[in-house]
Amino acid sequence: MRDDTSEFEFEVSCKPDFAYLNVQVPEGVTLKVESSAMACMDTNMKMKTKMRGGLGRMFTGESLFINEFTAEGAPAEIGIAPGAPGDLAHVYLEGGDDEIYLQNSGYVASSVGVDLATKWQGLVKGFFGGEGLFLVKATGTGDLWFSTFGAMIEVDVEDEYVVDTAYIVAFTAGLDYKVSRVGGYKSLFLSGEGFVARFSGQGKLWIQTRQLPAFGAWVLPFRPVKDPG
Length: 229
Hints:
Layout: E1 9-13, E2 20-25, E3 30-34, E4 38-41, E5 45-51, H1 56-60, E6 65-71, E7 76-80, E8 88-94, E9 100-102, E10 107-111, E11 114-120, H2 122-125, E12 134-147, E13 152-157, E14 160-164, E15 168-172, E16 175-181, H3 185-190, E17 195-201, E18 203-208, H4 212-219
Antiparallel strand pairs: 1-2, 2-7, 3-6, 3-10, 4-7, 5-6, 8-12, 9-12, 9-15, 10-12, 11-12, 13-18, 14-17, 15-18, 16-17
């Protein structure tokens, strides 16, 4: 896995708060993009919609579909805007055992050579950011872009590392993890802290600087309330 290799020319702008991706697609080449993430494109870009991710996507609340954009007759440019305000990262998968796991809402775009699969994580392992019981497993060869809510921090894990599950964006297959509570049940409900993932092994871990549940709780008091009278 490398971040300095790509089969596309691309540019990420507006980092780290509102990252926006521009990709130059060669003639006859196809780019896979998360449903509803296309912001603009050249007129010779043709779109085809396919189902992906299996039944797991139905339970996570994420889209069951992925759009494929092909540059027909000439090279074309496409602009891609992830759903949440935050950062965006790129890696190049080199096939074989090279694989990465993403939070359900993290996937943005990829080469056609990158395979996406929904991975069952069990009853406890699914507490990643309140996303449900599934992760997206990316394998194969090609470019992969993924996004965050908030800015992104890349961590090289060489032994052990602990992260609140709501802040995990992605991690490589060289890492194993166990999910546990920070404290006892009293701490779980009263401290504002929830579950943590205790990573072990060697690999890369991407975390985000914000999480949606905490942001929603912060916004809640500012919502306009209709006067019942």
